[in-house]
Write a structure and sequence with these properties.
Blueprint (H helix, E strand, L loop, with lengths): L20 H9 L7 H19 L8 H9 L9 H4 L2 H17 L6 H4 L1 H14 L4 H21 L8 H9 L15 H20 L14 H13 L4 H18 L8 H9 L7 H20 L28 H10 L5 H16 L3 H6 L5 E2 L4 E5 L5 E5 L2 H13 L24 H14 L9 H13 L4 H8 L4 H4 L7 H7 L10
Antiparallel strand pairs: 1-2, 2-3
Helix pairs in contact: 2-5, 7-8, 8-10, 9-10, 11-12, 12-14, 13-14, 16-18, 16-20, 20-21
Length: 512
Protein backbone atom coordinates (compact mmCIF):
# COMPACT_ATOMS: atom_id res chain seq x y z
CA UNK A 1 0.00 0.00 0.00
CA UNK A 2 1.35 3.46 -0.90
CA UNK A 3 0.61 6.69 0.93
CA UNK A 4 -0.50 8.50 -2.22
CA UNK A 5 -3.27 6.03 -3.00
CA UNK A 6 -6.53 7.94 -3.61
CA UNK A 7 -9.70 6.46 -2.06
CA UNK A 8 -12.82 8.22 -3.38
CA UNK A 9 -16.02 7.67 -1.36
CA UNK A 10 -19.59 7.53 -2.60
CA UNK A 11 -21.45 10.74 -3.23
CA UNK A 12 -23.52 10.21 -0.09
CA UNK A 13 -20.34 10.49 1.92
CA UNK A 14 -19.67 14.03 0.78
CA UNK A 15 -20.30 16.69 3.41
CA UNK A 16 -21.20 20.27 2.69
CA UNK A 17 -17.62 20.86 1.58
CA UNK A 18 -15.76 18.49 -0.73
CA UNK A 19 -14.49 15.55 1.31
CA UNK A 20 -11.12 14.15 0.20
CA UNK A 21 -10.13 10.93 1.92
CA UNK A 22 -6.45 11.37 1.09
CA UNK A 23 -6.29 14.96 2.31
CA UNK A 24 -8.13 13.95 5.49
CA UNK A 25 -5.70 11.14 6.25
CA UNK A 26 -2.72 13.41 5.60
CA UNK A 27 -4.13 16.05 7.95
CA UNK A 28 -4.72 13.38 10.61
CA UNK A 29 -1.17 12.03 10.30
CA UNK A 30 0.59 15.39 10.12
CA UNK A 31 1.38 15.63 13.88
CA UNK A 32 2.77 12.08 13.78
CA UNK A 33 5.46 12.57 11.09
CA UNK A 34 8.80 11.06 12.03
CA UNK A 35 7.23 9.05 14.87
CA UNK A 36 6.79 5.31 15.30
CA UNK A 37 3.01 5.73 15.40
CA UNK A 38 2.83 7.10 11.85
CA UNK A 39 2.62 3.75 10.04
CA UNK A 40 0.13 2.09 12.41
CA UNK A 41 -2.24 5.08 12.52
CA UNK A 42 -1.99 5.48 8.73
CA UNK A 43 -2.99 1.86 8.19
CA UNK A 44 -5.91 2.07 10.64
CA UNK A 45 -7.32 5.27 9.11
CA UNK A 46 -7.03 4.08 5.51
CA UNK A 47 -8.43 0.65 6.37
CA UNK A 48 -11.47 2.22 8.02
CA UNK A 49 -12.16 4.55 5.10
CA UNK A 50 -11.79 1.64 2.66
CA UNK A 51 -14.26 -0.45 4.67
CA UNK A 52 -16.75 2.44 4.76
CA UNK A 53 -16.55 2.69 0.97
CA UNK A 54 -17.19 -0.99 0.29
CA UNK A 55 -19.90 -1.07 2.99
CA UNK A 56 -21.54 2.03 1.44
CA UNK A 57 -21.73 3.83 4.81
CA UNK A 58 -21.67 7.65 4.56
CA UNK A 59 -19.01 9.33 6.64
CA UNK A 60 -21.67 11.47 8.32
CA UNK A 61 -23.35 8.33 9.70
CA UNK A 62 -20.30 7.05 11.58
CA UNK A 63 -20.90 6.51 15.28
CA UNK A 64 -19.97 4.00 17.97
CA UNK A 65 -22.09 1.26 16.44
CA UNK A 66 -20.38 1.66 13.05
CA UNK A 67 -16.95 1.40 14.68
CA UNK A 68 -18.10 -1.77 16.45
CA UNK A 69 -19.29 -3.21 13.13
CA UNK A 70 -15.84 -2.50 11.70
CA UNK A 71 -14.18 -4.22 14.67
CA UNK A 72 -16.43 -7.28 14.28
CA UNK A 73 -16.32 -7.66 10.49
CA UNK A 74 -14.66 -10.70 8.92
CA UNK A 75 -11.97 -8.74 7.10
CA UNK A 76 -11.19 -9.65 3.53
CA UNK A 77 -10.22 -6.13 2.50
CA UNK A 78 -7.47 -5.86 -0.09
CA UNK A 79 -4.03 -5.05 1.38
CA UNK A 80 -5.33 -5.49 4.95
CA UNK A 81 -5.33 -8.40 7.38
CA UNK A 82 -8.09 -9.91 9.51
CA UNK A 83 -5.63 -10.02 12.42
CA UNK A 84 -5.51 -6.24 12.45
CA UNK A 85 -9.17 -5.69 13.31
CA UNK A 86 -8.91 -8.26 16.11
CA UNK A 87 -6.31 -6.07 17.80
CA UNK A 88 -8.08 -3.69 20.26
CA UNK A 89 -5.25 -1.16 19.92
CA UNK A 90 -5.78 -1.10 16.15
CA UNK A 91 -9.50 -0.38 16.63
CA UNK A 92 -8.60 2.23 19.21
CA UNK A 93 -6.59 4.06 16.54
CA UNK A 94 -9.70 4.03 14.37
CA UNK A 95 -11.60 5.67 17.22
CA UNK A 96 -8.92 8.38 17.42
CA UNK A 97 -9.33 8.95 13.69
CA UNK A 98 -13.12 9.24 14.07
CA UNK A 99 -12.63 11.78 16.83
CA UNK A 100 -10.40 13.79 14.48
CA UNK A 101 -13.21 13.74 11.89
CA UNK A 102 -15.65 14.93 14.55
CA UNK A 103 -13.35 17.81 15.50
CA UNK A 104 -13.05 18.81 11.84
CA UNK A 105 -16.81 18.82 11.39
CA UNK A 106 -16.96 15.91 8.93
CA UNK A 107 -19.06 13.97 11.44
CA UNK A 108 -21.79 15.79 13.35
CA UNK A 109 -21.82 15.47 17.13
CA UNK A 110 -24.18 16.83 19.77
CA UNK A 111 -23.29 20.50 20.11
CA UNK A 112 -23.31 20.83 23.89
CA UNK A 113 -21.09 17.73 24.30
CA UNK A 114 -18.72 19.15 21.69
CA UNK A 115 -18.00 22.04 24.10
CA UNK A 116 -16.52 19.61 26.62
CA UNK A 117 -13.13 21.33 26.79
CA UNK A 118 -14.29 24.45 28.59
CA UNK A 119 -16.41 22.43 31.02
CA UNK A 120 -13.47 20.19 31.90
CA UNK A 121 -11.18 23.18 32.39
CA UNK A 122 -13.56 24.87 34.80
CA UNK A 123 -14.28 21.56 36.52
CA UNK A 124 -10.56 21.18 37.17
CA UNK A 125 -10.50 24.68 38.68
CA UNK A 126 -13.45 23.78 40.90
CA UNK A 127 -11.74 20.62 42.15
CA UNK A 128 -8.57 22.53 42.99
CA UNK A 129 -10.44 25.31 44.82
CA UNK A 130 -12.52 22.76 46.77
CA UNK A 131 -9.46 21.30 48.47
CA UNK A 132 -9.08 18.00 46.62
CA UNK A 133 -5.56 16.60 46.71
CA UNK A 134 -3.71 16.15 43.43
CA UNK A 135 -4.44 12.44 43.18
CA UNK A 136 -8.20 12.98 43.65
CA UNK A 137 -8.18 15.84 41.17
CA UNK A 138 -6.56 13.66 38.50
CA UNK A 139 -8.90 10.74 39.17
CA UNK A 140 -12.13 12.77 39.10
CA UNK A 141 -11.01 14.83 36.12
CA UNK A 142 -10.09 11.66 34.21
CA UNK A 143 -13.51 10.10 34.84
CA UNK A 144 -15.23 13.33 33.75
CA UNK A 145 -13.21 13.38 30.53
CA UNK A 146 -14.00 9.71 29.98
CA UNK A 147 -17.72 10.38 30.51
CA UNK A 148 -17.65 13.21 28.00
CA UNK A 149 -15.90 11.06 25.40
CA UNK A 150 -18.42 8.28 25.88
CA UNK A 151 -21.36 10.68 25.54
CA UNK A 152 -19.84 12.10 22.39
CA UNK A 153 -19.23 8.67 20.86
CA UNK A 154 -22.74 7.55 21.85
CA UNK A 155 -24.30 10.74 20.38
CA UNK A 156 -25.98 11.61 23.71
CA UNK A 157 -26.49 15.26 24.69
CA UNK A 158 -26.45 16.68 28.20
CA UNK A 159 -30.21 17.23 28.05
CA UNK A 160 -30.65 13.44 27.71
CA UNK A 161 -28.51 12.49 30.72
CA UNK A 162 -30.39 10.65 33.44
CA UNK A 163 -29.77 7.76 35.84
CA UNK A 164 -30.06 5.14 33.09
CA UNK A 165 -27.48 6.95 30.93
CA UNK A 166 -25.05 7.11 33.84
CA UNK A 167 -25.55 3.42 34.50
CA UNK A 168 -24.86 2.62 30.85
CA UNK A 169 -21.61 4.57 31.06
CA UNK A 170 -20.65 2.92 34.34
CA UNK A 171 -20.97 -0.60 32.93
CA UNK A 172 -19.88 -0.15 29.29
CA UNK A 173 -17.01 -2.23 27.97
CA UNK A 174 -14.61 0.60 27.41
CA UNK A 175 -13.16 1.45 24.03
CA UNK A 176 -13.42 5.21 24.10
CA UNK A 177 -10.32 5.99 22.09
CA UNK A 178 -8.13 7.84 24.59
CA UNK A 179 -5.98 5.09 26.04
CA UNK A 180 -8.81 3.65 28.13
CA UNK A 181 -8.55 0.08 29.31
CA UNK A 182 -10.45 -2.73 27.62
CA UNK A 183 -11.92 -5.82 29.21
CA UNK A 184 -14.28 -6.48 32.10
CA UNK A 185 -14.34 -3.63 34.59
CA UNK A 186 -13.81 -4.46 38.27
CA UNK A 187 -16.17 -3.49 41.06
CA UNK A 188 -13.91 -0.67 42.24
CA UNK A 189 -13.80 0.64 38.68
CA UNK A 190 -17.60 0.70 38.54
CA UNK A 191 -17.74 2.65 41.80
CA UNK A 192 -15.09 5.08 40.56
CA UNK A 193 -16.96 5.69 37.31
CA UNK A 194 -20.29 6.24 39.08
CA UNK A 195 -18.82 8.63 41.64
CA UNK A 196 -16.87 10.62 39.05
CA UNK A 197 -19.81 10.88 36.64
CA UNK A 198 -22.34 11.98 39.26
CA UNK A 199 -19.98 14.61 40.69
CA UNK A 200 -19.25 16.00 37.23
CA UNK A 201 -22.97 16.15 36.48
CA UNK A 202 -23.58 17.94 39.78
CA UNK A 203 -20.98 20.53 38.72
CA UNK A 204 -22.65 20.95 35.30
CA UNK A 205 -26.04 21.23 36.97
CA UNK A 206 -24.75 24.10 39.12
CA UNK A 207 -23.62 25.83 35.93
CA UNK A 208 -26.98 25.28 34.24
CA UNK A 209 -25.65 22.87 31.61
CA UNK A 210 -27.68 19.91 32.90
CA UNK A 211 -31.27 20.92 33.51
CA UNK A 212 -32.23 18.23 35.98
CA UNK A 213 -30.32 16.17 38.53
CA UNK A 214 -29.42 12.54 38.07
CA UNK A 215 -31.79 10.74 40.40
CA UNK A 216 -32.66 7.15 41.08
CA UNK A 217 -35.43 5.57 39.01
CA UNK A 218 -38.87 6.82 40.07
CA UNK A 219 -40.54 5.20 43.05
CA UNK A 220 -44.07 3.94 43.14
CA UNK A 221 -46.29 7.02 43.68
CA UNK A 222 -48.24 5.25 46.44
CA UNK A 223 -45.04 4.39 48.31
CA UNK A 224 -43.83 7.96 47.79
CA UNK A 225 -47.09 9.35 49.22
CA UNK A 226 -46.67 7.01 52.20
CA UNK A 227 -43.20 8.46 52.77
CA UNK A 228 -44.58 12.02 52.66
CA UNK A 229 -47.23 11.03 55.23
CA UNK A 230 -44.57 9.60 57.55
CA UNK A 231 -42.60 12.81 57.27
CA UNK A 232 -45.50 15.21 57.83
CA UNK A 233 -47.70 13.37 60.32
CA UNK A 234 -45.40 10.93 62.13
CA UNK A 235 -42.20 12.96 62.35
CA UNK A 236 -40.08 10.09 61.02
CA UNK A 237 -36.44 10.66 60.13
CA UNK A 238 -35.32 10.54 56.53
CA UNK A 239 -33.48 7.28 57.16
CA UNK A 240 -36.64 5.66 58.56
CA UNK A 241 -38.72 6.99 55.67
CA UNK A 242 -36.28 5.57 53.13
CA UNK A 243 -36.38 2.18 54.84
CA UNK A 244 -40.18 2.10 55.13
CA UNK A 245 -40.70 3.17 51.50
CA UNK A 246 -38.28 0.49 50.31
CA UNK A 247 -40.11 -2.26 52.23
CA UNK A 248 -43.51 -0.95 51.12
CA UNK A 249 -42.50 -1.08 47.45
CA UNK A 250 -41.80 -4.81 47.89
CA UNK A 251 -45.26 -5.81 49.08
CA UNK A 252 -47.38 -3.29 47.13
CA UNK A 253 -47.81 -5.63 44.11
CA UNK A 254 -49.25 -8.32 46.43
CA UNK A 255 -51.76 -5.88 47.93
CA UNK A 256 -53.13 -4.75 44.58
CA UNK A 257 -54.00 -1.32 43.28
CA UNK A 258 -57.40 -0.97 45.03
CA UNK A 259 -57.08 -0.42 48.82
CA UNK A 260 -60.80 -1.15 49.31
CA UNK A 261 -60.11 -4.74 48.24
CA UNK A 262 -57.42 -5.49 50.84
CA UNK A 263 -58.25 -8.73 52.64
CA UNK A 264 -57.00 -10.46 55.78
CA UNK A 265 -55.57 -13.49 53.98
CA UNK A 266 -53.33 -11.31 51.81
CA UNK A 267 -52.10 -9.29 54.78
CA UNK A 268 -51.17 -12.42 56.73
CA UNK A 269 -49.50 -13.99 53.71
CA UNK A 270 -47.28 -10.91 53.18
CA UNK A 271 -45.87 -11.27 56.70
CA UNK A 272 -45.73 -15.05 57.00
CA UNK A 273 -44.35 -15.86 53.53
CA UNK A 274 -41.01 -14.11 53.97
CA UNK A 275 -37.81 -15.71 52.58
CA UNK A 276 -36.32 -18.41 54.84
CA UNK A 277 -33.09 -16.48 55.35
CA UNK A 278 -34.94 -13.52 56.90
CA UNK A 279 -34.23 -13.10 60.61
CA UNK A 280 -37.07 -12.72 63.09
CA UNK A 281 -36.31 -9.01 63.39
CA UNK A 282 -36.58 -8.56 59.61
CA UNK A 283 -39.96 -10.29 59.50
CA UNK A 284 -41.10 -8.12 62.41
CA UNK A 285 -40.02 -5.02 60.51
CA UNK A 286 -42.18 -6.02 57.54
CA UNK A 287 -45.18 -6.42 59.87
CA UNK A 288 -44.51 -3.01 61.45
CA UNK A 289 -44.25 -1.29 58.08
CA UNK A 290 -47.40 -3.01 56.82
CA UNK A 291 -49.38 -1.82 59.84
CA UNK A 292 -48.10 1.73 59.36
CA UNK A 293 -49.04 1.59 55.66
CA UNK A 294 -52.57 0.43 56.52
CA UNK A 295 -52.91 3.31 59.00
CA UNK A 296 -51.84 5.67 56.21
CA UNK A 297 -54.45 4.27 53.84
CA UNK A 298 -57.15 4.33 56.53
CA UNK A 299 -56.32 7.94 57.44
CA UNK A 300 -57.05 8.88 53.83
CA UNK A 301 -60.27 6.85 53.76
CA UNK A 302 -59.03 4.27 51.29
CA UNK A 303 -59.30 1.10 53.39
CA UNK A 304 -60.94 -0.17 56.58
CA UNK A 305 -59.17 0.98 59.78
CA UNK A 306 -59.58 -2.40 61.49
CA UNK A 307 -57.38 -4.15 58.91
CA UNK A 308 -54.22 -3.12 60.76
CA UNK A 309 -55.23 -5.50 63.58
CA UNK A 310 -55.23 -8.41 61.13
CA UNK A 311 -51.48 -8.14 60.59
CA UNK A 312 -49.84 -10.89 62.70
CA UNK A 313 -47.39 -9.89 65.40
CA UNK A 314 -43.90 -11.35 65.40
CA UNK A 315 -42.96 -12.11 69.00
CA UNK A 316 -39.59 -10.52 69.75
CA UNK A 317 -37.11 -12.21 72.04
CA UNK A 318 -36.13 -8.85 73.46
CA UNK A 319 -35.41 -10.09 76.98
CA UNK A 320 -33.76 -13.35 75.99
CA UNK A 321 -30.22 -11.94 75.85
CA UNK A 322 -28.13 -9.58 77.93
CA UNK A 323 -27.24 -6.13 76.57
CA UNK A 324 -23.66 -6.16 75.31
CA UNK A 325 -21.62 -3.60 77.21
CA UNK A 326 -18.08 -2.77 78.35
CA UNK A 327 -16.94 -1.99 81.88
CA UNK A 328 -15.89 1.59 82.77
CA UNK A 329 -12.17 0.74 82.63
CA UNK A 330 -12.50 -0.52 79.05
CA UNK A 331 -14.46 2.59 78.06
CA UNK A 332 -11.63 4.78 79.35
CA UNK A 333 -9.10 2.67 77.44
CA UNK A 334 -11.06 3.28 74.25
CA UNK A 335 -11.12 7.02 74.91
CA UNK A 336 -7.42 7.08 75.73
CA UNK A 337 -6.59 5.15 72.55
CA UNK A 338 -8.04 8.00 70.49
CA UNK A 339 -5.11 10.36 70.96
CA UNK A 340 -5.49 13.85 69.53
CA UNK A 341 -2.38 13.79 67.33
CA UNK A 342 -3.94 13.80 63.83
CA UNK A 343 -6.98 15.61 62.37
CA UNK A 344 -8.90 12.34 62.06
CA UNK A 345 -8.23 11.36 65.67
CA UNK A 346 -9.21 14.82 66.94
CA UNK A 347 -12.56 14.43 65.22
CA UNK A 348 -12.97 10.80 66.30
CA UNK A 349 -12.13 11.64 69.92
CA UNK A 350 -14.96 14.19 70.01
CA UNK A 351 -17.37 11.62 68.59
CA UNK A 352 -16.33 8.86 70.99
CA UNK A 353 -16.54 11.13 74.06
CA UNK A 354 -20.07 12.22 73.11
CA UNK A 355 -21.07 8.57 72.73
CA UNK A 356 -19.44 7.49 75.98
CA UNK A 357 -20.49 10.37 78.26
CA UNK A 358 -24.04 10.94 77.05
CA UNK A 359 -25.03 7.52 75.67
CA UNK A 360 -26.05 9.01 72.33
CA UNK A 361 -27.20 6.99 69.36
CA UNK A 362 -25.04 6.93 66.23
CA UNK A 363 -27.84 8.76 64.41
CA UNK A 364 -27.65 11.56 67.01
CA UNK A 365 -24.00 12.12 66.13
CA UNK A 366 -24.71 11.83 62.41
CA UNK A 367 -27.49 14.47 62.46
CA UNK A 368 -25.87 16.82 64.98
CA UNK A 369 -25.55 20.41 63.79
CA UNK A 370 -23.22 23.19 64.85
CA UNK A 371 -26.15 25.24 66.14
CA UNK A 372 -27.20 22.41 68.47
CA UNK A 373 -24.46 23.38 70.95
CA UNK A 374 -25.15 26.21 73.40
CA UNK A 375 -21.64 27.10 74.50
CA UNK A 376 -22.75 29.77 77.01
CA UNK A 377 -24.95 27.42 79.01
CA UNK A 378 -23.02 24.23 78.24
CA UNK A 379 -26.03 22.43 76.72
CA UNK A 380 -26.42 20.12 73.77
CA UNK A 381 -29.71 19.90 71.89
CA UNK A 382 -30.65 16.50 70.47
CA UNK A 383 -33.31 15.82 67.87
CA UNK A 384 -34.87 12.52 68.83
CA UNK A 385 -37.47 10.30 67.28
CA UNK A 386 -40.85 11.78 66.37
CA UNK A 387 -39.50 15.33 66.11
CA UNK A 388 -38.83 15.43 69.86
CA UNK A 389 -35.97 17.67 70.99
CA UNK A 390 -34.21 17.57 74.33
CA UNK A 391 -31.32 19.48 75.92
CA UNK A 392 -28.61 17.63 77.79
CA UNK A 393 -25.66 19.04 79.76
CA UNK A 394 -22.45 18.89 77.77
CA UNK A 395 -19.66 17.23 79.84
CA UNK A 396 -16.42 19.18 80.14
CA UNK A 397 -14.12 16.70 78.39
CA UNK A 398 -16.59 16.10 75.56
CA UNK A 399 -17.08 19.86 75.13
CA UNK A 400 -13.32 20.44 75.04
CA UNK A 401 -12.93 17.71 72.39
CA UNK A 402 -15.67 19.23 70.22
CA UNK A 403 -14.14 22.71 70.60
CA UNK A 404 -10.73 21.35 69.55
CA UNK A 405 -12.30 19.73 66.50
CA UNK A 406 -14.03 22.96 65.49
CA UNK A 407 -10.93 25.06 66.07
CA UNK A 408 -8.25 22.83 64.53
CA UNK A 409 -9.86 20.39 62.10
CA UNK A 410 -13.28 21.24 60.74
CA UNK A 411 -13.10 23.21 57.46
CA UNK A 412 -14.90 26.53 57.28
CA UNK A 413 -17.65 25.71 54.79
CA UNK A 414 -21.37 26.38 54.47
CA UNK A 415 -22.49 23.06 55.99
CA UNK A 416 -24.63 22.88 59.12
CA UNK A 417 -23.72 19.30 60.08
CA UNK A 418 -21.14 19.23 62.86
CA UNK A 419 -19.07 16.18 61.89
CA UNK A 420 -17.77 15.95 58.33
CA UNK A 421 -15.42 13.82 56.29
CA UNK A 422 -11.89 15.20 56.31
CA UNK A 423 -11.30 14.87 52.56
CA UNK A 424 -12.68 17.21 49.92
CA UNK A 425 -15.45 18.02 49.24
CA UNK A 426 -15.94 17.78 53.06
CA UNK A 427 -19.40 16.24 53.01
CA UNK A 428 -21.30 14.80 56.01
CA UNK A 429 -21.16 11.07 56.67
CA UNK A 430 -23.35 9.07 54.31
CA UNK A 431 -25.13 7.29 57.18
CA UNK A 432 -24.92 6.63 60.89
CA UNK A 433 -23.16 3.32 60.23
CA UNK A 434 -19.95 5.27 59.56
CA UNK A 435 -19.97 6.30 63.23
CA UNK A 436 -19.77 2.64 64.22
CA UNK A 437 -16.96 2.21 61.70
CA UNK A 438 -14.96 4.89 63.51
CA UNK A 439 -15.32 2.99 66.80
CA UNK A 440 -14.33 -0.31 65.16
CA UNK A 441 -11.11 1.21 63.79
CA UNK A 442 -10.08 2.54 67.20
CA UNK A 443 -10.80 -0.79 68.89
CA UNK A 444 -8.40 -2.45 66.46
CA UNK A 445 -5.81 0.30 66.95
CA UNK A 446 -6.00 -0.06 70.75
CA UNK A 447 -5.87 -3.86 70.61
CA UNK A 448 -9.12 -4.18 72.58
CA UNK A 449 -10.86 -7.49 71.97
CA UNK A 450 -14.16 -8.99 73.09
CA UNK A 451 -15.99 -5.64 72.96
CA UNK A 452 -18.95 -4.97 70.63
CA UNK A 453 -17.87 -2.71 67.78
CA UNK A 454 -21.19 -0.92 67.33
CA UNK A 455 -21.73 2.60 68.63
CA UNK A 456 -24.73 1.36 70.65
CA UNK A 457 -22.25 -0.38 72.96
CA UNK A 458 -21.58 2.98 74.68
CA UNK A 459 -25.30 3.39 75.31
CA UNK A 460 -25.58 -0.04 76.93
CA UNK A 461 -22.41 0.58 78.94
CA UNK A 462 -23.66 3.92 80.30
CA UNK A 463 -26.99 2.40 81.36
CA UNK A 464 -25.24 -0.51 83.07
CA UNK A 465 -22.85 1.80 84.95
CA UNK A 466 -25.70 4.07 86.14
CA UNK A 467 -27.67 1.10 87.47
CA UNK A 468 -24.68 -0.30 89.35
CA UNK A 469 -24.04 3.11 90.88
CA UNK A 470 -27.55 3.17 92.33
CA UNK A 471 -29.63 4.98 89.72
CA UNK A 472 -33.19 3.75 89.19
CA UNK A 473 -34.66 2.52 85.95
CA UNK A 474 -36.66 5.74 85.58
CA UNK A 475 -33.49 7.83 85.79
CA UNK A 476 -31.72 5.59 83.29
CA UNK A 477 -34.68 5.85 80.91
CA UNK A 478 -34.60 9.65 81.20
CA UNK A 479 -30.89 9.78 80.35
CA UNK A 480 -31.32 7.44 77.39
CA UNK A 481 -34.50 9.26 76.28
CA UNK A 482 -36.64 6.14 76.19
CA UNK A 483 -40.27 6.77 75.33
CA UNK A 484 -41.55 3.66 77.14
CA UNK A 485 -40.40 2.29 80.54
CA UNK A 486 -40.53 -1.21 79.02
CA UNK A 487 -37.55 -0.31 76.85
CA UNK A 488 -35.43 0.33 79.94
CA UNK A 489 -36.36 -2.91 81.75
CA UNK A 490 -33.86 -4.87 79.67
CA UNK A 491 -31.06 -3.30 81.73
CA UNK A 492 -32.45 -4.74 84.98
CA UNK A 493 -30.80 -8.03 84.03
CA UNK A 494 -27.31 -6.53 84.18
CA UNK A 495 -27.75 -5.10 87.69
CA UNK A 496 -25.87 -8.03 89.26
CA UNK A 497 -25.73 -6.69 92.89
CA UNK A 498 -29.50 -6.18 92.97
CA UNK A 499 -30.14 -9.59 91.45
CA UNK A 500 -27.92 -11.17 94.11
CA UNK A 501 -29.96 -9.52 96.85
CA UNK A 502 -33.26 -10.91 95.63
CA UNK A 503 -32.00 -14.29 94.41
CA UNK A 504 -33.33 -17.28 96.34
CA UNK A 505 -31.15 -20.30 97.22
CA UNK A 506 -31.47 -23.29 94.94
CA UNK A 507 -33.91 -25.75 96.56
CA UNK A 508 -31.61 -28.71 96.01
CA UNK A 509 -31.73 -31.73 93.80
CA UNK A 510 -35.16 -32.63 92.54
CA UNK A 511 -36.30 -36.25 92.23
CA UNK A 512 -36.50 -37.54 88.73
Amino acid sequence: MTDDTQMPLAAAQQSTRCFSAEDTVRAFLEPMHWTAAFVTYSSAARHFLHWLEISKIPIVDVDQSVIQRFADHDCSCQRYSADQVRDPYYVNRVRRFVRFLEDRGDIAVVKDVADMGQHLRRYGERLASSGYNRWSQRRLHSVAEHFGLWLRASRIGWHEVDASVVERFVRHDCGCGEGRKHGTIARTGIQRRRLGATRFIAFLRDRGVVARPVIAPGRDPVAQAFGDWLRQHRGATERTIENYVFITARFLPDLGSDPSCYDVATLRRIVLDQPPHFARASVGKVATVLRAFLRFQAANGRCRPELQHAVPYVTPYRLSVLPRYADPATIERIVAACSADTPARIRDRAIILLLARLGLRASDIWLMRITDIDWRQGLLRLHGKGRRSIRLPLPQDAGDAVAAYLDEVRPVIAEERLFLRLGAPFTPFASSSEISGILARHLVRAGIRGVPSGAHMFRHSLATRLLREGAGLEAVGAVLRHRSPDTTTVYAKVDIPMLQMIAQPWPGDLAC
